[in-house]
């Protein structure tokens, strides 16, 4: 038994091969300026620390308090892509007035705020600008402060990298599962992520989803795109449709899709756009809400049940060339009017268990 364990340990270690490097803030900054340290434009949406959180990081470094290691992934060209530490590295760059936005434009230098131990940080900026600027000695201390950099070598397995990123996501403002998934896709294939973001802006999707700003910020629209692509033709097997522990299944599917991109991407895009063109033309922004049979109105926020039954249901028929219904709003009303008898309750069900019910129902409901 111990031999089996030793073998598993050795195998897992090979999956993630990493070096540890001690590096000054000045050296890391130089790598960023030279284009060796890469913060993908797609990651800018994840930079969400407040001014107070940024200032607490600066306070910790000025006081010599250790901060967690920063993880980078080495690409095939030897460059470093940031895996974990986005908030910390971006703060240090923003403090120096060096951080650029997704379009390549420089962001304003960070204005610090008072912290618990360093009240004098209030209003301070990088550069010797009278009483507002940090002193030359304070800036030198920050430039010489050292960071532990863990470099995940390019030979490491992509799925192991993703698992590592999940485990590391505990410092600062936690990311949503989709934001972590986005980071992994970007690390495997930036082209794939750009393609996926293009689908999130397709007019038919935008018009029918009508998501609030919070869900957009958390990339829920991108998660719905991935769900559609993964599930619209999927063969469902077993009691749970083979979708138990769905977040892990979606992670694995996303990794495989990014690794093999652009295989099947044109077919996927065609089905996706055709589906949401039909939905926006024949439905409305009320489509993915719950139909209240008592008041006879669509009410509430976005409903995953409606999306899974109607959008993925139509997608199935478009992909397979079979006839489908176009009286979309009537389908939505029918779904909720018959739900207690056709589906039962989905409240409290794990995502995979809900899919095992909603997807077959949607395929039947949307069949002409």
From TrEMBL:
Domain of life of the organism encoding this protein: Bacteria
- What Pfam families does this protein's entry cite? GmrSD_N
User: Which InterPro entries does the entry mention?
Assistant: GmrSD_N
Which segments constitute the GmrSD restriction endonucleases N-terminal domain? 26-185
Q: What is this protein called?
A: DUF262 domain-containing protein
